[in-house]
Amino acid sequence: MTEIASTTALSEAGTRGTDEVSASPPTRRVVQTIELLSRHPAEHLSLARIVRGTGMSRATAHAVLTQLTADGWTIRDADGNYCLGLGLMTVARRAEAAFPLRRLAAEAIRRLADTHRMPAFLAEREGDSIVITEVIGTPSVPWMRAGRHIPFAPPVCREFIAWAPTPARATWLAAAEPAHQPRLKLVLDAIRARGYSVERLADDSAPMLEALASLRNSPLTDPLRHRLSDMITELITIDYLPDELGDQNAVVSVAAPIFGADGDVVASLVVCPDTQLPAAQLTALAEAAITSADTVTAALRH
After folding, report:
1. Which helix (H) or strand (E) holds 150?
2. Which end is more exposed in the chain, N or C (fewer Cβ atoms within 10 Å of the end residue's Cβ)?
């Protein structure tokens, strides 16, 4: 569990009602079906397993799959089981051409994850949120999954704002909890100087943050939501400043920025040890992440 999970949980709780009103249930069923099949690319799933995995009724799942199969997005084998079809693969290849960053970053992420034997992922800026788009390795924390949207809001996403012009930084900082703002100003300067951000979480805070974040699925009044936010604020320590590194340091993730052609941070490459690290090992891991991110930046600019 990290401060990302804690802060985004509150944001998601506050927007869930609006999203549900505007959502399209039929579209969501199609997306659920494709997502489930994509998580098992080497398997053919039975209708019963798809029903269990999506929560749809058998009749609804059958209707969705019948249409997807007719369009070539899924294949129904001789045993009545389903897998992804070539029609969807064609669409995926076309879509990939529109997102060169993911293609260019794939090898760098894999090499970083394999070399250090820990999960790594690519996070991309998309409007007012950050989206996890590529994940390599086995995630150890629930928020680290492809497709996860993280609000572009303090105290997270710091590596995306540390290099921004002064007005953009000021706007981002103004949205932070007042208690966080002085530290965040120092942290942004430190991130820009050293080239990376760190998500940290003290071991004794983890159980409490886990319990507080679990309330995101409960109906919350505005006063309770504000109180919950205050409690989480009291438990979170944002990043490390230069004089705060000790013999052992709680490190959930290390993120290095990827710059676009215009000099803006368009993504970050994130490696996730989720453990205690000596200062020297943290620095070495961060330097590896920076080198990998710089490789992607250079590829984007050519």
Report:
1. strand 149-151
2. C
